[in-house]
Each structure stands twice: as C-alpha cells, then as structure tokens.
Specification:
single chain; 249 residues; mainly alpha; 11 helices
C-alpha cells in the first residue's frame, strides 16, 4: 500500500511571499488586539504557516514585531508622500504642507498605538528603519523648503527635532487618556505652538536680520555647485553660527 506524503501547508511558496503573508497576518492581529495579540500561535493560525517558519524568517517575536512595524510604517510613508491638495501631491503653501504632514503623523500614531509606541517609546538607534528614514527625509525636505523661502525662525535641524518631539509627545499624551476624555482642541494648540516657535507666518528674511538670511542660505547651500566641498563646509559652519544667534533672540 502506497503511503501518502503529508500535506505541506506552505508548499513551495516563495520566501518573500511567505514572509509578506506572515507580516500581513501579524499587522492584522496587532490592529485588532494590540501587542499582546501578536503571539506565535495566533500568527500561525492566521497566516496558515508552521511555527518554525516564523522563527526561521524573523528570529523571535521581537523580530516579527519589527517587521510588522516596518510594513505598516512603510505603507503610511508611501501614502503620506502622495497626500496633498486633492491627492495631487504636496500642497503649494509649504506651511500648510508641513501642517498636513504633522496632522497625518499624529493621526497615524493614534490609529496604530501598538506600533507607534514600539517605534517611539522603545527607540533602537542601532537598528535603522528604512521606512522611518524615508519619513525623516521627507520631513527634512519640507522644513528646508520653509528655510529657502525665509519662513524658518530656527536652523533646519532644530526645527526638525522640535516637530518630531511635538508630534511624538502629543500622541503619547493622548494615548494615555481615554479617547472619550481627550480635549478636542488639544491637537491644534499643540501643533500651532511648535509652528509658532519654528516658523514665520510670511517670508520675512529681512525682519530677523542675519539669522534669517543665514538659515535660508544654509538650506540652499547643498545645491551650490560653485563651491568645493571644503568651501561648503566652512561656509556652512559660519551660517550655522549666524542662524543660532537668531534662535536665542
């Protein structure tokens, strides 16, 4: 009597497809029940795979959680890059564009608390997130546009850090409150507080004096092909020093 080979639930599925199926299943579990719902047993059942496959592809639960977070964050960053007026891309007004990005980031955090807290409450500088780096680069480009138009009060790096800190702080604060008890006006107040600290409401390069001009020129310096690398470095240091004087006034 010929013996029938046991069924292989994973077949000869491509490893990338198999990994993607597991990550999607993990993301669904995380969205439905939070971090505690992301168990190996639950992922095995949802993705229809064997437990050893998860350990082979992700190492452990933390590895799976990192992959799930990267998947969800990457999707968000892609949607954010396409967002804008009527879905046509970045808004024409750089301040409105930056405001929209801040609002979207906060909304993402409130809608994905488990992933957001994993990414921001447990930072891992030794493990860079490609999606996170893409999001950071997008934010910096938007801030540089403000600087180039004379709208920035402080150096680009400081503005980026303040925007990120205000966004993360806002999300963590609201996640610590019952949703029904959250102040509906808190988001706008938090956002405008940081925008008032980093940006002018209209181009006013002359008003802040040398500091404003230095910030605008510093943001454009990377595109100046007339200078050597050493000259750009020296000029950048001088401009940074001038820009810093404006942030103390």
């Amino acid at each position: 009597m010929r013996r029938t080979a046991p069924a292989d639930p994973e077949g000869r599925e491509d490893q990338d497809d198999l990994r993607r199926r597991i990550v999607v299943a993990g993301a669904a579990l995380l969205a439905e029940g939070g971090r505690d719902a992301l168990t190996t047993r639950a992922v095995v059942a949802r993705a229809h795979v064997q437990a050893p496959t998860i350990y082979r592809l992700f190492g452990d639960k933390d590895g799976l959680l990192e992959a799930v977070a990267e998947h969800v964050l990457s999707d968000f960053v892609s949607r954010k890059a396409l967002a804008g007026a009527n879905g046509q891309g970045a808004l024409a007004d750089p301040l409105d564009d930056l405001r929209q990005g801040w609002d979207m980031s906060v909304a993402f955090g409130l809608a994905n608390p488990a992933i957001y807290l994993f990414l921001h409450a447990e930072p891992r500088p030794d493990r860079a997130s490609p999606a996170g780096e893409a999001g950071f680069a997008m934010l910096r480009r938007k801030v540089e546009k403000l600087a180039e138009q004379g709208l920035l009060r402080v150096p680009v790096g400081r503005a980026v850090d303040l925007l990120r800190a205000s966004g993360v702080g806002t999300v963590v604060t609201l996640l610590g409150q019952p949703e029904a008890q959250r102040d509906p006006g808190f988001l706008a107040l938090a956002r405008e507080a940081v925008f008032g600290a980093i940006a002018w409401s209209a181009p006013t390069i002359d008003a802040p004096g040398a500091a404003g001009a230095a910030i605008a020129l510093r943001a454009s310096l990377r595109d100046d092909a007339l200078l050597t690398a050493g000259e750009r470095l020296l000029l950048g240091e001088l401009l940074d020093r001038l820009a810093a004087t404006g942030s103390r006034t």
